[in-house]
Amino acid sequence: MHAVLNWLWQGCIVALALFAMLHLLERARAQVRYVVCWVAQLFVIALPVVAFLEPSPGQPGPLPRVPVAGLHLDRSEHSPADLHDLARLDVRASH
Question: Would you tell me the crossing angle of helices 30-53 and 2-24 to the nearest 10 degrees?
Answer without folding.
Answer: 160
